[in-house]
Write a structure and sequence with these properties.
The chain is mainly alpha-helical and 71 residues long. The chain has one domain. This is Transposase.
């Protein structure tokens, strides 16, 4: 059975929240590593990937919200 737009939107919102939490953790890790004088190259790369995922998820959420309002 295919998912409804409401179901898809709920999953997308959950994924967004998870990615936001991941982003916050990566930012905190970058701060900690910087304070310790350690390399942040890999963590910054992971942060960029997370931010790209967030952009995609936000676009999907917007699309689904439009679909929900105008089926």
């Amino acid at each position: 059975m295919p998912w409804s737009v409401t179901d898809e939107l709920a999953v997308t919102r959950r994924h967004l929240a998870e990615e936001e939490a991941r982003r916050c953790a990566q930012i905190a890790l970058i701060k900690t590593l910087t304070e310790r004088g350690q390399s942040v190259v890999e963590t910054e790369h992971a942060l960029r990937e997370t931010e790209a995922s967030l952009m995609t998820l936000r676009a999907r959420r917007s699309y689904l919200e439009v679909l929900q309002r105008h089926p």
